[in-house]
Design a protein that fits this description.
heterodimer, A: about 300 residues, mainly alpha, B: mainly alpha, 15 helices, about 0% strand, globular
Chain lengths: ~300, ~325
């Protein structure tokens, strides 16, 4: 019974949400402004402001003349532009699919294991998350260097005899997926696992009594019930995935010229800004990225019904 | 007795089913085998690089090639690698670590001071523009932060802050995701009667926040602090854009400097006269992530309960 109530909790609290507000709205006052003031300043200084500034830069030139979509056309026609976006496009597809399939599968599998087995595994999967960023790229450069790698036999099997052949441009999307998965998947497995734990036992028992197999239970009950978290994961993974910078930059550094320094759009924008001093072109690329990120996120947000703040 | 009875009851049923289709048992065995293979593969995938990394500084560079990848060298080698690391640009690694600490902790203080009251205010007070602020927060959360780094650079450059610690700390302090987490937490987990009672007792809004809401928010404060600190400690792009001098770099950029100085992973580059080889680089990685690693070791349980506390109710 208590579980049934728990399962309905989201509904109950959503309607509750409005009530405290109504109560406080009878107390006029400026307290609310006080609470949000510092955050609002930061929001405008480092969120809204830069976005507006980037928009302004992208439709003007270096002397402030309005150029309309000129910067967008110019950057689009840059021979590196399509390549950079194609690179992260391929990366994003591989990354989101493998993240989705493997984290959900692993969470379901671990959910059926004994408690200590599952908690030990979850912890071990999660630990590499501490090496996110530069550290993870360096570690995987070591892993991909056949001269010292613990997986050297596997690398040789794949025909990679040196670090340079292992990091050929065609391999990069897969390598970046591996790195992202290594640092990021463990945390998501834990979150999915936790979400699975929140499914009421009665529902699971009912499925068992109806003779559902583990696969059917997973497909028909567990996955639909953690849908919200799956979308949430995809949104954040997508937003982060469009921003690849440190990964291609470090690999380029170690590949002795084999990898383009403008592999990802972010690197291209960086090159525009700091090699060519063209901040307007850089801003246009940032806006392309921003639109891509927002569009992807919004599609997922709308499909999932996440972020429903439905008060008022 | 009960056990016996139940096994007696179950087994014929299973048996019958098995007779009905041998395929089903075969499928189950295959399924179980595949499951364990998947677990084993992922276990190796997640753990092996960590183990290798921890062992690498115990070996010399030539040991790394010669000895087995998981062999242990000696602690003398670790000490030697450490000395080589200190020799690099006059113990630059210590300066980088100090910088990382200043940037991440400075940002952490401002983040908490801005985020927790904001989440509370959005959830439990009403004011004009509240809904707009909330929507704006959700939209900005989805904006890829790296896309804003260049405009932020220009903005800070206009007020002559680039190259200073503030140019890193201030952008790090803006954390809409933390506001969202706090908002969800307060909107769903704070007993409203408590607030109403406090108001009747004549508490001011600020007293209610400090004396009631803040102590109750410990889980979400921990969550926001963790994500903010880890994210900022590991951030590479923003400080790279903002800072120009090696003595201002955080450890993440320091690692990149080391990479470009080691001939081991970087055959094209010079720097062979420096003693920065793979063991030194591995040691630098370990030292560089140590604060985050310690947080990770002790935070798993708190994190999950905190995140899901928001989820089940929100």
């Amino acid at each position: 019974m208590s579980q049934l109530i728990a399962a309905r909790a989201p509904r109950a609290t959503k309607s509750d949400l409005a009530s405290p507000g109504r109560r406080t709205s009878r107390r006029p006052g400026l307290a609310g402004y006080g609470f949000v003031s510092l955050y609002t300043v930061l929001l405008f200084a480092f969120g809204v402001g830069p976005t507006a500034y980037a928009l302004y830069l992208s439709v003007t030139n270096s002397v402030g003349q309005v150029t309309g979509i000129g910067q967008f056309v110019k950057t689009f026609q840059d021979f590196r532009f399509i390549g950079a976006f194609a690179n992260i496009g391929l990366y994003l597809v591989l990354w989101l699919v493998s993240l989705l399939v493997l984290t959900v599968t692993m969470a379901l599998i671990l959910h059926q294991r004994r408690r200590w087995v599952s908690s030990t595994l979850r912890f071990l999967f999660y630990l590499p998350g501490a090496l996110a960023g530069v550290a993870s790229v360096l570690v995987w450069l070591f892993m991909l260097d056949p001269s010292s790698s613990p997986i050297a036999p596997l690398l040789h099997l794949l025909g990679f005899t040196t670090l340079t052949t292992a990091t050929l441009p065609t391999n990069l999307p897969v390598i970046f997926v591996v790195i992202a998965f290594w640092t990021g998947a463990g945390g998501w497995i834990i979150i999915m696992y936790g979400a699975l734990n929140n499914i009421s036992l009665e529902i699971m028992d009912a499925a068992k009594i109806d003779g559902a197999s583990a696969f059917q239970t997973a497909w028909r009950i567990q996955i639909p019930m953690i849908r919200k978290w799956i979308y949430y994961m995809l949104i954040l993974a997508f937003a982060a995935g469009t921003q690849l910078f440190v990964e291609p930059q470090l690999v380029a550094e170690a590949s002795s010229g084999g990898v383009s320094p403008t592999w990802s759009p972010n690197e291209l924008a960086y090159t525009y800004a700091f090699q060519n001093g063209d901040f307007n072109g850089a801003a246009a690329i940032s806006i392309y990225l921003l639109i891509l990120g927002l569009a992807g996120a919004l599609v997922l947000v709308l499909r999932s019904g996440l972020f429903n703040t439905d008060e008022d | 007795m009960v056990n016996l009875a139940s096994t007696k009851y179950v087994s014929p049923a299973d048996h019958g089913r098995a007779l009905g289709s041998g395929n089903r048992i075969a499928a189950r065995v295959t399924g179980r085998t595949l499951t364990w293979i998947l677990i084993a593969v992922l276990l190796v995938f997640f753990v092996l690089p960590v183990v290798w990394l921890l062992l690498a500084p115990t070996k010399t560079d030539s040991d790394l090639v010669r000895l087995g990848p998981l062999a242990f060298g000696s602690f003398t080698n670790v000490a030697q690698a450490w000395n080589h690391l200190l020799d690099f640009q006059g113990a630059a690694i210590l300066v980088w670590l100090k910088n990382s600490a200043v940037y991440s902790l400075g940002a952490l203080v401002i983040t908490l001071a801005a985020t927790i009251p904001a989440g509370y205010g959005l959830a439990l007070t009403r004011f004009r523009g509240r809904q707009a602020l909330l929507s704006l927060t959700l939209v900005v959360m989805l904006v890829p932060t790296a896309a804003l780094v260049l405009p932020i650079y220009l903005e800070l450059s206009a007020v002559h802050l680039t190259g200073t610690a503030w140019s890193v700390i201030l952008p790090f302090s803006f954390y809409p995701f933390g506001v969202y987490l706090t908002y969800i937490y307060y909107a769903t987990s704070l007993p409203k009667d408590l607030l109403a009672a406090a108001r009747i007792d004549g508490c001011t809004e600020w007293q209610i926040f400090v004396q009631i809401a803040l102590p109750l928010a410990r889980p979400v404060i921990g969550l926001v602090a963790f994500f903010s600190f880890v994210g900022n400690w590991n951030n590479y792009f923003l400080p790279l854009v903002m800072l120009a001098k090696s003595q201002d770099y955080p450890v993440q950029i320091g690692l990149q400097q080391l990479l470009s100085s080691t001939p081991a992973l970087n055959p094209g580059q010079g720097g062979a006269q420096l003693n920065i080889q793979r063991p030194e680089l591995a040691l630098a990685i370990i030292i560089g992530i140590l604060p985050v690693l310690i947080l990770f070791l002790f935070s798993q349980r708190t994190l999950v309960s905190g995140l899901l506390a928001g989820s089940t109710k929100g």
